[in-house]
Amino acid sequence: MHVARTQVLAFVVSAACAGLAGAFFAFNVQLAAPAGFPLALSIALVTGIVVGGIGSLVGAVWGGVLLVYLNQEATDLAKHFHISAATGANWALLAYGVLLIAVMLVVPDGIQGGVRRLGRLVTRQ
Description:
It is a single chain. By secondary structure, this protein is mainly α. 80% of the residues lie in helices and 0% in strands. The chain has two domains: 1-33; 38-124, no CATH class. It has helices spanning 3-29, 39-52, 57-80, 85-88, 91-106, 110-124. The mean pLDDT is 88.
């Protein structure tokens, strides 16, 4: 098995899937503009992957579920303290940053990596 060829093939397949998804999205929305993908969305996606654990599908699910609930909790917290809508929209980004720093310090492999490490500790004893 040629490692370099397999890596290039994986890259080509993923790029083709992303391009096809983008084409379907533009066809469905009838518009192709960068405004449809704000910076906050990119930050949320990267945070979800890193928090869940890079390199595992289950980790991405952990990160996605956690960020959906975190976003909702940040919004509810902003409403509870009667924060204006313009300022309250940034609370989720603040929560993403705090969570990202905490996870990188406590479990650098993400949540899934922490679960794996905990499982190894339990099975050793």
